[in-house]
Write a structure and sequence with these properties.
Length: 271
Amino acid sequence: MVKFYESSFNYDYPLSAVSLAYFLRYPNPYATHVLSTDVIDRHFDSARQRLSTTRLHLKKSKLPPAVLKLLPKGILGGGGDAGESYVLEKSVVDIKEGWMKTESRNLEWTGILSVVEKQAYRRPAETVAQADQAGIDLVETTKNEGTSVTTTVTLLSRFGQAKALKRKEGISVTDSEQSTGSEVEIPAKKGFFSSWSTGSLQRSIELIGLRRTREAMSKSKEGMNVVLERLRNGGLVRVLEGMQQDRRRAFGQNGPWKQVWRQEHELEDKD
């Protein structure tokens, strides 16, 4: 039982500007829930002219209330309302060939709902041959140049799947196995939940996730457009100023980004 979401969109900006905006998109007025972003790996392949990056985003996030209502009490041990979650993002940019591919996936509550988002950004075929021309401004657009993006999101719930499989195979599950398992398992259902099959719960969770994905995609496009507009009007300086303003509006003067910076410098002073 898997749900898919797919959408296509065109930006009126060249790929060079769109790829830069992608890496500078947090925070923005439509993504004030992003607490921090860390680059954990970056590599440039000079032979193929490709930049590969792996980043880790920390976001203010929790399971949707509609999903929590479907889960038996105590199944998360309070983790579903923790308020923060990590998202792993991988990207590859090839300006020479005119494309960028990204993949993002949640690292929290994957047993309940795994969400994998893949995006493919492409320069129009007729402008790929001009990629090596010198003197083209980063955000200068031409009449026929833009960037198309196709987004595919895969939502998969494995809620209760591990225990159901063990029951099917006739394997007993001990308390210790349940507590150390990597997947979330459904305890014995009572009352209302006794009428729900594992498949029904999984489908319901995936549908709720699908609705939330549609809303998130709309905000994501708006956020990218804000960053691109800042690039057009004031270049990189305007983007950085906008990021600072968004950070202050979202978190105040002593937000999480500034706290991390202070902690790093305190450690340096101690050394």
